[in-house]
Sequence to fold (190 residues):
Amino acid sequence: MTWEELESACLSCRRCALWETRTNVVVGVGNRAARVMLVGEGPGEQEDLKGEPFVGRAGQLLDTMLAIIGLSRAKNVYIANIVKCRPPKNRDPLNTEQDACIGYLREQFKLIRPAIIICLGRIAAGRIIGPDFKITQDHGKWYVKDGVHITALYHPAALLRDPGRRPETFEDLKSIEAKIREICPEVYAS
Fold:
């Protein structure tokens, strides 16, 4: 599947009921040749309005977090979500909605071929790392699946609600920077 085919499939998708209330399909944003990919759970209100992931307050915090370790959505990361349409009232995406959309994310993985995947929050981590993942216990731990290094951070929205988690998130960010420098230093070359 090409990027154009993927975007067309997402735009015309009616696999679950989320299409009925969406304003925009939020496929993803960033460098399509990135070695680092970030995955959230799904678009919120601002993302649905703009058609781009992480553009509200949580997105501003995410941009700051990325900048701390020399990353940016414009330059060297790609950002996507498990589901491409906003769940009503920003609720967690249902398993049936995740199931309907996960194929699109898998196609994004195939197109990008990231060396590192960073899950943003418990929903994304539970889906990508595994259902036994607990964000409070397992954030910052590294997993390897099919040669791809995977970790999880607290979702930026959770950090806005609970700023006390920021110091441990800073440590997780430094771990991510070290992993990037170890396995794909070219990310920082330009």
In short: The chain has eight helices and six strands. The mean pLDDT is 96. Strands lie at 29-30, 36-40, 77-81, 116-120, 143-145, 148-153.
